[in-house]
Each structure stands twice: as structure tokens, then as C-alpha cells.
Amino acid sequence: MTLSKKLLLTAAAITLPQMGLAQDTEAAAVTAEMVWIMNTLLFLIGGFLVFFMAAGFAMLEGGLVRSKNVTMQMTKNVALFSLATIAYWAFGYNLMYPLGTWSVEGVLSGVFGFGVLEAVGIDLAGADDGEYASTGSDFFFQLMFCAATSSIVSGALAERIKLWPFLVFVVVLTGVIYPLQASWKWGGGFLDNMGFLDFAGSTVVHSVGGWAALAGALILGPRIGKYKDGRVNPMPGSNLALATLGMFILWLGWFGFNGGSQLAMGSVGDIADVSRIFANTNAAAAGGAVVALILTQLLYKKPDLTMVLNGALAGLVSITAEPLTPSLGMATLIGGIGGVIVVFAVPLLDKLKIDDVVGAIPVHLCAGIWGTIAVVLTNPEASLGTQLYSIIVVGVFAFVASGAVWFILKATLGIRVSEEAEINGLDMAELGMDAYPEFSKS
Predict the structure, then answer these.
(1) Half-sphere exposure of residue 331, counting CA atoms within 13 Å on the CB side?
(2) What pLDDT is attached to residue 22?
(3) Over the Cα atoms of the chain, what is R_g?
(4) Which of 41, 97, 121, 179 is the most exposed place for a label (fewest CB within 10 A)?
(5) Which residues are bridge partners to 228 per DSSP?
(6) Pure H helices in 97-198
(7) Hey, how many other C-beta atoms are within 10 angstroms of the C-beta on 302?
(8) What is the C-alpha to C-alpha distance for residues 339 and 285, in angstroms, rounded to an integer?
(9) How confident is the model over 151-168, as a mean pLDDT?
(10) Is 303 helix (H, G, I), strand (E, B) or coil?
């Protein structure tokens, strides 16, 4: 072998492994970028699906209140979402995600101030977390959950609450109460360290909204004429077609709510799990609707559409704590039990003279508690004791904190409209406009 040939072979022996290493490094970098991009895309798609739930809440409430109060519900839903956006940016986001920096370990964030996005035009090295997703997508996705919490309260307290005191409560709820308790689980706080499991928020989102609504309903009192002479007087909604549209929009948005909470879409396993979550979420909603349909036929001799709508929503709330691990059959059963809860909880509230206009407390609070407990049925990592303890801790905090805010608002601004305004309708009394001006008031 000539010297030149030896040198050539030696060079090749050195160069080929280096080329292979360079290719492997480049491939790994491309893979990391794609994972980051796909995770970010999941948050953005999930986020705008959950955003559309704001329209669902508005339509559901607009259909279930009387026509003289529809404009007020539309106004509240637009305003509450907008205020939640500002409050969550101003202090809620950092309060919810301490990123390991605590003022009180596992309880109170040590990170305060405005939410801040990544710089313009970053590469992966410039990302806040190159193994997760963009900060903007995370903020956007989590904001949607925060805003949904306040939408729950809006429907329960409809037809008798003043606009501005309600909106003040929304700022406190979305800026402080919701993100603080959410940090205990999703921010890596003490409930998360105990092993509390709440995949997409049966407790963290839905029961918190339900507790806030319950506290408000107790302090605000029922609508005039709702409970009279020992009887419950029905006050039918203005447009059940609109309410049905609202339910279907919420059902659609829930795919983003639960599916996006997988928090990853960068592998075959992740996207398969997202698909599984979609299927289970749908099955639970169907189970809740069908059970409510059958039960109201048996109990009242005729199906009740409003119960069917809330049965589907209760099924969705019930599966939210654990939409991944159940089989389709178990998901349907979990949702079906949510439907049972609604059918019996709605009249129970009326017996207790707690006036919930749209059924938000049975759907979001009662079914939220059930869904959080049901996690132990399919997830072997769940502990019943831990789930119950977490339900109690979050419930006591949300109810007491919300009650305190409602009491302060009642003592200062006043939270209830006058009797005349309530009878004439909040649309004209508070806003000076009718939703249906061509039709007579009801």
C-alpha cells in the first residue's frame, strides 16, 4: 500500500465518524425543534378551542335567562373574558406558575408582576424552555381556563346581580383566587407534591367556579318570585335553541380543554393519547346526555331538554379530571353518573332555596367533585384520600375567599339590583337596551 493511499484511508477513518456524529447532532436538533413546535401548536389549537367556549357560555346563558335579561348576559360574558385577560396577565400568570420560586414553599408564589413573553424571532436556544413550548402559547392556553372559571359564576347569578360589582369579583377571581389555588396543583405546589391528580381541571377549574357561584348565590339570594308559598315557580328561559347551540359549542371546546391538557404532541405516544382523550371526552358527554334524557322521562313522564343539556355538560366536567386512562365504556359510565348528579342536584338546590339560573352549581361543582373522585377508578397512581383531601382544601379556600369578596362588595357597592330593576329586567334598567326590541318583555 502506497503512502498516499494510507493517508487517504486514515483521513477517511477520521472523517466518516465525525460526519456521522455531525449528522446525528443535526438530526437531534431538528427533532428537538419539531417537538417544541408541535407542543406549541397543540397549545394554540387547544387554546382557541377553549376560547370558543366563551361563546358557548354566552349562548347557553342567553338561552336560559328570560328575554328581559339577555343583553346583560351577553355584556357580562364579553366583559368578564376581557377583564380576565388583563388580570391574568397583570398578576395571575406568575402567581399560578412560580417555576420553583416560592414565597411560602408550595403555597404562595415568589414571582410577582406582569406576564412576559419571549423575545421576537427567537431560535430554540433563545426559548424560555426549549423542551416544552413557547411562553406565548402556554400563557394563551392557561388564560382560557382562567376565563372559563368566571363564566361559570356568570350564569348562576344571572337576572339579579349588578354589572359592576360582578366584574370587580371577576378581577379578584381570575387574578388571585383561581391562580393561587391552581398553583397548588399545576404550579408544582403542595397538592401536586402529595400526588393529587386533576388532568384538566374538574377541581382546579370547574369546582372552583362552582364554589364561587355557590357563595355568591347564598349571599345574593334568589330571584323575586322564584320561591313563594313553599313552592318553586319555574322561570323558563327565553330561547332553548340558543341554549342548545351553546351546549354544542361547549362540547366542541372541551376537546381543546382536555386534549390540550396532554401538554405534548411531539411523539407518536403523545398524539395517540390526545386522540384517546378526544374519544373519551366525547363518550362522557354522550353518557351524561343520554342518562339525563332517560331519567327525566322516568321521573317527570317527559324528557326535559334543559336537563339533557346540563347532563351533557356534567358528563364533560366529570371526565375532565382524568380523560386519558378510562376505556370508552368507563368514560361513558363516568359521564353518565354526572348526568344522574345533575338531575337530582337541580331540584335539591331548589329545595334549599338556592337559585342557580342555569344549573352551573350542579354541573360544575357537583360533577366536578365526582369527576375528581372518579380518577381512582382508572388511574392506579391516584389515591382516594389525596383526592378527597384536595377537594376539601380547594373547596374551603374557594368558598371562603369568594364569600369574603362577595360580603365586601355587598357592604360597599351593593351587589343586587333594585326590586323594580329586577322586575323590569336588567337589560333596560342597567343597560338601557333590549335584546329583542320587537317582542314584548317576559
Answers:
(1) 23
(2) 59
(3) 25
(4) 121
(5) 231
(6) 135-156, 163-172, 178-185, 190-194
(7) 8
(8) 9
(9) 97
(10) coil
Contact 63, 310 (CB under 8 A): no
With bands split at pLDDT 50, 70 and 90, how would you rate the model's confidence at 6?
A: very low
> How would you label 401-418 residue by residue, b for 16+ Cβ within 10 Å and e otherwise?
bbbebbeebeeeeebbbe
- The single-letter code of the amino acid at 367 is A
Hey, what amino acid is at 165? Answer: P
**DSSP category for residue 380:** T
β-pairing verdict for 231-232 and 102-104:
unpaired
| Alpha helices, DSSP H, located in 65-134 | 70-87, 93-96
Encode pLDDT of 405-435 as tens digits.
Answer: 999 999 999 999 999 999 999 999 999 999 9
Task: Output phi, psi for 300, to 5 deg.
Answer: -115, 0
Q: How far apart are CA 234 and CA 347, in angstroms?
A: 11
Check residue 17 and give its pLDDT. Answer: 53
Length of the chain: 442
Give me the chain's average pLDDT, please: 93
- Residue 219: exposed, middle, or buried by beta-carbon count in 10 A (0-12, 13-18, 19+)? middle
Q: How far is Cα of residue 374 from the mean position of the Cα atoms in its chain?
A: 18
Q: Tell me what pLDDT residue 229 has.
A: 87
pLDDT tens, position by position, 356-375 = 999 999 999 999 999 999 99
pLDDT digits (tens, 9 = 90+) for 20-32: 555 666 666 668 8
DSSP H or E stretch at residue 135: helix 135-156
Phi, psi dihedral angles at 108 (to 5 degrees): -130, 125
Using an 8 Å Cβ cutoff, are 420 and 406 in contact? Answer: no
Sheet strands (E) in 212-255: 227-228, 231-232
List C-alpha distances in Å: 25 to 13, 19, 22, 32, 37: 19, 10, 5, 11, 18
First to last CA, the chain: 103
**DSSP symbol at 121:** T
Q: The C-alpha cell of 105 is what?
A: 414553599
**What value does the mean pLDDT take over residues 10-29?**
55
